[in-house]
Design a protein that fits this description.
The structure is a homohexamer. Chain A has about 350 residues and is an alpha/beta fold. Chain A has a single domain, classed as Ribokinase (UDP-N-acetylmuramoyl-L-alanine:D-glutamate ligase), CATH 3.40.1190. Chain A contains eleven helices and 15 strands. In chain A, helix 9 packs antiparallel against helix 10. The radius of gyration of chain A is 19 Å and the shape is globular. Strand 3 of chain C pairs antiparallel with strand 3 of chain E.
């Protein structure tokens, strides 16, 4: 079973420790992006994964590609060309001070690429599952076109599509997102959506915007998930993370899955958060891993949420955990003792 | 509207991460001091500020001055001369282990300076507000004299004085402090005092010394604040922070303001503390910023406390936050989600 | 009063900050080991301590020895020879992700040493107390022999033995451990045991394996402690730490001491943990320090537990605290304010 | 006497130590750019300087501006707007391996700016000297227009223009550069040119491209300098650095100045190079400082070259040296002993 | 064309900057080993390479494998098992102080492996060239056996063998080395030998041991190379690096190749050395790359030596350079200017 | 044979890498001082050494003392008291830019100490050699007194005195130095003097101040050494280092010894300097080590100079080398190859 993911990878520049950008003289460099993160998670869990994107033909592009290769993702079909690698600056918050992201991704080599550069016939060779998120079509009109071309290829060749709606308000407006994503949804087999994604990309309200009480809003999330299944009968599963975020460090997480008109839930996990990013990607990868290994619905959502929660304990975009570690968290709600 | 602050700036040498001085091979260097911190906060919030002090004529003095300039404080009137820059070593505690400060400030160029070196006529040109804290007169007899000269200038020229009583037990005894600060209080327009400051500098008891229950002692704080107003009718406002400090990381904070014989309070904030220093300076700057912009009493104390609480999330003496960030904390008691 | 401790010291290589081994390019190097940690704690508290072991005759061996000397431990009797220094890799967990230790200690110069290399007559000169833990006999058959030779020397010369059972499942099986440690116990004066140590080394069950509710199991701990005293009448005291571990960062700790058939307890401490290792060694050193200074039973267990809890706030194997700091924690359950 | 410099400032991301981009996980962040470097050098030497540019209205823009303020450059006239800050990656070479720069400056807020946004009447208030380099017009057609508008203003108001031809082959072709810079030269009072700048921007050959023998080509440099004076009679001085670059670390430097048809030379300096960038900016600033202080021609070129050579010993774009340090190098060709 | 290399990969722990092991608290971690270095160099130059070894089944083993994958080496045939990863400590010298290596490689999982674990039929599938060095048989008797089995496979299947004699005096004596390597030489097609390798492994003297005058001994090197060809007629080429090492930083390098009874030499390169290790591996990879691309003899030795010299400018075992960079050094004996 | 050294130890704060104080945010912390450096060198070479001084009773004082203990120096007689530890800031130069030291040592606990605090009867118990440098009497009048008291004790008890004249122009004038040191010289057995020390402390000219040609001035050095012996017949040996310092990195070193009216010289060593401080202390320790082990005059000066030259390759005040390493440098003028 082979998975293909399609998206943009960026250089991430993070201030060390707790420093603010105004005071720092150093950045920690790593490379990530939603679909690349999913690909790497899947590879670390032992799956066969291919990543498709366009990278600049310079050392930063090579460094990004090497990150994928290092963790076992197949990159042989990557496009390369003149241009820049998208960048983002990451300033971790603390307590009541929010985490801060500065996007510097405009004009990237992928944003400048044409849809036609992607030869889906070749790219989809041997692929069994296709994953992308709402970030990819948010990049440019051409990438929207590329997404639709890929979706049509999948539909024609019975390749199930996993799509994380992943709304990014700094990339497009809700209106633009809806005009595209409602079209995308007609192809999607498994839909992942969190918080404001429901409304911003599909116009279906699940969440009132109060991050400190997401879990309390479980019923509206359920209604929204049912609404998706009703509106897009091609969708076989809808999965979501619900959160109560109390501060940058403290939050509660749970997972919710709708499959065959039945809901499956995880327990609520109390988490001390190291870095609150890319947890949705870890969730998507966990879900897809479970699907590839035919987990039942309850195990599926439990594994996905456990993967997601573990990501919060790790620095960087990548969920550098093993299947054993995810399973340990899934099976126990306290930390296991140090084994010596 | 222009503010002048007067005090000492020091080189701060902090062990990295969680290291103790006994084990460290590195120090993080930054420059701070109560009145410099206030000046920088005010400048970062867009105000016109001048800082007056005496700095050594060496690279450390230049580095301190450059810190002020970097964040927009006017330093053109700084005195310079042969001597040393005061230094302090900062070893952050953890959980039940207290934070540790080693002062190495004796013999600094400011401590060695004469009161007469400060030409207040020139220094106060265009100044609308004067800020200093109880640390400045604690430095030396000459600095006490300088403070009184400055206060008299202000009284004569109707420049309101904001004074943070800021008791430092390692610099002078309570008895010495009282003999000076009760005199200073006759000139003060806005008085800031926390915890043991009331008693140590004015002989007015507000706080029983139990840091874990400062907020529970709100009524004795109120009595002390009223006592100040009664004793020093020139004082128009008294402001204070009340805290329940449970561990180095966990505490609760609230603000209290007495104005026109009425008390104004903020809600209680739960804070996960990064660095528990200079929060009082952030509070003073927030208060002064609100006064400069004619905030009403409730907004004044809320803004000041929010500024103070945000400081706790930042490493270093300086409250590197924007007005928007302070306002966000003031308006919500949960952290806002990461905006992407 | 002079203490001798006997064990192995290793190079500890820790990933910086929160990094996982898979992503790190740096290790923080320090040197530690249960009995060396105890020796250093005792020296830091002002006691006369000697450490005996065998170290490799290379720069890593010198660096380990220098660590002991730096903090005042006498190392003049250390054996040296060709071979390697045991090493271990330390990857700190976070929240629900467990801390991870990779032992690379096989083939160390101490493991390769012969029991006969230790000349106990000379080594025990002027020694008043002997301390070792269950790790030492777990190293090799020869070290088991060495331990027994040392124990017999002590018995013959009335030197009290303090033994921390310290079970290490990665070094030997419970069956092996029991076959040795039940023999060792016939010589022991003061016995320290935590959690699974009771059962794994002596076959006496105290703890059901659920780390999140150790304190709730106080009664079974008490029974186990009494069982030890019953079975080994030579044992004068049994001491233990009970813990509720909620996550890598959050836990509750209390101490329990059995002396003269009476139990002594400490209050429960809430701790925000920096590094959850070597706290048992800090406890053992605290206990021994108290014994050396004739503390009464209540003060003994309170001091030992306070030392242990302080260790949790410090990075590295060594409990770099002063007697004043331990006493402050012992006397108050909240952190003292920053003194400036 | 007040100087205005006009150009672009970028975030510079440098790999630490000797690391290559392919292996690094960290970048050292600083902010620089030819004309900003000149402004900061002049301010550090005690001169009154203003910097004009357009910066993004985000934390990176603020950090860049703070760098200027920190070292005393006036930034009150800076334009600000939505957009990105140009970035460049710096990988220091070693021995035979060349230093490597990756420009990521396209689409910067200055490149996107319109010429009309710069109100030269206001900007030039009180300005006595204008400095810019060939990089500014290389940014965009609009910046070319802005340069010409500034030049015309200067011509009309008798403000001397110092221009460093500063050819950047990664920004424009020699043909484009010539079409613009030959026009710019009609306004220039003092012209700085090195190596291939002569030919690439003016079509006047001075240098055969062999970096290891620049000094040996002194006569062709002289001819080129005379050719400039002949072709552009408005030019009062032409200054140039000649180099023999043997490796990344080892080189020889000398300065050459043409003034009133007479040549002035410095001795040849052997330099062990720390960072071979921004030395031309240090040279320009040294020259301009000398002009502002009416140095004679010989002292002018000696001071400028000494400033330039000192820059090679410093990490970062900024020449963080004092006038005393430059003078010491100017007066002696060996290093002075450590003064203690 | 596919290359297989066979050897051991180790964790390398290097003190940062110029620190000695006695003073350091940090190690920089990377992974390398002669044959892995060659494999990575070949992959970075665009060749198809497979690496065979046995790695421990733990995070350190994964980190080593990820290093290979990151740079494009195929690792699918790696053996894995319980055990430890060999380690070495690297303390860079300076000037007259020698660089210092502490091997801690005994008992590694590869040393403990059996020759039979390697199934050469499968391993050599599609392989066109086989590379290993004298380090592999120095590991253990079993690895000697494995080397001979591999050599016989190659002889039977006409796969040319490239062997770097690579004597390691800390691993085996000259006598042991000769007893094995003289046997190995009967299978070798291309032989690489430097300095004392000739004598220590084959008993053929080329070098008198004075590192400061290796180049002056060119004639004895030539005789030794001819002696090899005479004694082992299967050898088609012998290649060697000659060096004058003046200090840790300063040396001169040249290459020498014997092919078809003709000698080919490179010019002498003056190098400022960053890290004087793994340059021989870079040389071997450069040679093999040239052979794979049918370079003529002169270009072969020039390319190999240039690759080797570039390695000296890079930190870590890996020669992270591109073909363009090697070619640039090959074509010019001075560094090219910074291109901007 | 036991050596006592007497002086001041300071905290040394060094900017990392090549950073200037104006740009740094970090200092590397270590502890050193001429006589402490000598003591540590002697201990590292296996000698019995005691260090006497007065240290502050705080964590910085403990850290300084621990440094001595770590490397084996006996500190049991150290005085302790309230006060500060002297500090100095170290900014390493590069090429033509001089290294920069900022002393912040005034008001240290040793400067404030009284001569009477030192009980020489006790301190000198078992001492066979006494070492101090001209820095100790430069600290204060009281320390001058203490030095004279120690000298008289030595004279009375036949303890030879080794004195490094060590002139520090930032601590006292040449006139003050001469008035004290000419008195001290009446007690000295072995005198060490470099460069301007001769003239500044004794009024005997050896050196014309041109650091680039110290070796060329060998004859005037010899005359000065003879003049010392003539004037102070108690002096048995005079030793000196002669240097040609070409840049911060490049210099030539040689040693010169006068013993029994005969001169002994070393060859000239070319050194690439890492850190040009404390080399004189390494020289003194090497000399004293040789004396303790009865080296002949030629070996004495060769060993001392080799120790000194090795120090230049090490970061920090301490000469962390072994006797084997010194001997290797003494026996060969090229670096030995990496042994693996």
């Amino acid at each position: 079973m082979k998975v293909l993911t399609f998206g943009e990878m960026m250089l991430r520049l993070k201030t060390p420790n707790n420093e603010r950008i105004l005071q720092t003289q150093h950045f920690e460099a790593s490379y990530g992006g939603a679909e690349a993160n999913v690909a790497i998670s899947l590879a670390l869990l032992g799956n066969d994964v291919e990543y498709i994107s366009k990278f600049p033909q310079n050392l930063l592009g090579s460094a990004a590609e090497n990150t994928l290769k290092k963790y076992g993702v197949n990159t042989s079909k990557l496009l390369k060309g003149e241009g820049r690698l998208g960048t983002y600056y990451f300033e971790k918050g603390a307590s009541l001070r929010s985490t801060n992201v500065i996007y510097d991704r405009k004009g990237s080599v992928l944003e400048q690429a044409k849809a036609e550069e992607f030869d889906w016939d070749t790219i989809f060779e041997d692929v069994d599952y296709f994953y992308f998120s709402g970030i990819t079509p948010a990049i440019s009109k051409e990438m929207q076109k590329a997404c639709f071309m890929a979706c049509e290829y999948c539909q024609k060749h019975d390749i199930p599509i996993v799509c994380d709606l992943n709304y990014r308000g700094k990339m497009w407006s809700s209106q633009e997102a809806q005009s595209v994503m409602t079209g995308v949804m007609k192809y999607v087999t498994i839909c992942i959506a969190h918080d404001e994604d429901f409304e911003a990309t599909l116009g279906i309200k699940a969440f009132d915007g109060d991050s400190s009480s997401g879990i309390e809003q479980k019923e509206t999330f359920k209604s929204a998930m049912l609404a998706i299944k009703r509106k897009y009968p091609n969708v076989k599963m809808v999965a979501s993370i619900l959160r109560n975020i109390f501060s940058v460090e403290d939050s509660q997480w749970m997972g919710l899955l709708l499959k065959n008109n039945k809901f499956y839930e995880t327990p609520i996990y109390d988490v001390h958060v190291m870095e609150g990013v890319a947890a949705g990607d870890a969730f998507g990868a966990g879900l897809l891993h479970g699907i590839l290994h035919a987990y039942n619905a309850q195990k599926l959502i439990s594994f996905a949420l456990s993967a997601s929660v573990l990501k919060l304990t790790i620095t960087g975009d990548l969920n550098l955990v093993s299947e054993e570690e995810i399973t340990a968290v899934m099976n126990s709600n306290t930390v296991s003792r140090l084994s010596r």
